[in-house]
Design a protein that fits this description.
Order of helices and strands: EEEEEEEEEEHEEEE
Radius of gyration: 19 Å
Helix content: under 10%
Strand content: 15-25%
Bound molecules: zinc ion
Structural class: mainly beta
Number of helices: 1
Length: about 280
């Protein structure tokens, strides 16, 4: 890659900030349980109960994900979680699958939850060995109070890879200093490559509504990494692919924003965190 410049001056080290993201390009389809998808059927064993909403009321201060210390009031039964996405290692080796697993399943409790950081669905990740799944479960009906806005229309993926630079607000302190960017400056300079909103694996967080946050692993203290972005809209950003629909999943996350899942680089099965931007 060419040497990156800032205000026309080549800056050593800037190239190290490039991360290659796998853009998912969801497109409506009819995925099977043994395929990667948004909103389709999960490869879920028929003898394993569907997970229930992990958010308790009153809030549990020791909840595994500090993004969800609030909760909906539970007057009826605990809501069952619904399928949101599935990623097979064969399709997405870029995900750091914990040893012995080859499929990542993402589920939502599709109700509004209060949290210190945002409102939205509660999220659960399940890392699984697909070889251990025999009979596949029929998905349960969504809870009655489910928000349609949190349920994606079934989509298949047409992935491509795309090199991303962080928003300037996400630069490491030493890079900001080297570039003479004032602390607290959030606006990208003119001509800086745009970081659009789209569903992806890896890459940088496209902060557009809120600001960057330092997220540490609750287990080992490592800095959590942007891992999965689920976007309301799929922006056209010149990746070379045609974007057929700008909102193929038909859902609304945040203020037509992106639900970002951050995982631990040391071990993806450590507690993750979620920020809706
Ligand atoms: Zn819930
Ligand atoms: Zn960790
Ligand atoms: Zn593309």
């Amino acid at each position: 890659m060419r040497q990156l410049t800032y205000d026309g001056v080549p800056i050593p080290g800037l190239n190290d900030l490039v991360r290659t993201a796998i853009r998912l390009h969801p497109a409506s389809g009819e995925p099977r349980p043994d395929e990667s998808h948004l909103g389709g059927p999960l490869l879920w064993p028929s003898d394993e109960p569907w997970p229930e909403c992990p958010v308790t009321w009153p809030p549990d201060p020791d909840a595994s994900d500090d993004a969800w210390t609030g909760g909906h009031r539970l007057d009826g039964p605990v809501p069952v979680m619904v399928s949101v996405a599935q990623f097979f290692r064969d399709d997405f080796p870029e995900l750091h699958f914990p040893e012995g697993t080859d499929v990542l399943q993402v589920l939502f409790c599709p109700l509004e939850h209060d949290s210190p950081h945002h409102r939205g669905p509660a999220v659960r990740l399940v890392w699984r060995d697909s070889g251990e799944v025999g009979d596949i479960a029929d998905p349960p009906p969504a809870p009655e109070a489910a928000e349609a806005a949190f349920r994606p229309v079934p989509c298949v993926f047409e992935p491509c890879s795309i090199d991303e630079l962080p928003r300037v607000c996400d630069f490491p302190a030493e890079t900001r200093a080297a570039l003479g960017i004032a602390d607290g400056a959030a606006e990208d300079p003119e001509g800086w490559p745009e970081l659009g909103q789209y569903s992806k694996i890896g890459g940088w967080t496209a902060w557009s509504a809120t600001g960057p946050v330092e997220l540490g692993c609750r287990d080992c203290g490592a800095r959590l990494l942007q891992t999965i972005a689920l976007a309301t809209e799929e922006h056209e950003v010149g990746c070379g692919c045609e974007v057929a629909e700008d909102a193929p999943a038909g859902w609304t996350l945040g203020r037509r924003g992106v639900l970002n899942i951050f995982t631990c680089p040391a071990d993806a099965s450590h507690p993750f965190k979620v920020r809706i931007d």
